[in-house]
Amino acid sequence: MHHPDHHTFNRFIRFLAFLIGVAVAPVVLAASGEPPAPISTVEAVAPALTGQQVYNNVCIACHYPPGVGGAPALGDTNAWTPRIAQGMDTLIDHALNGFTGSTGVMPMKGERVDLSDEEIIVAVEYMVEQVDQ
Question: If you placed Cys at 80, which of 29, 49, 91, 131 could pair as Cys (CB 3.0 to 4.6 Å)?
Answer without folding.
Answer: 131
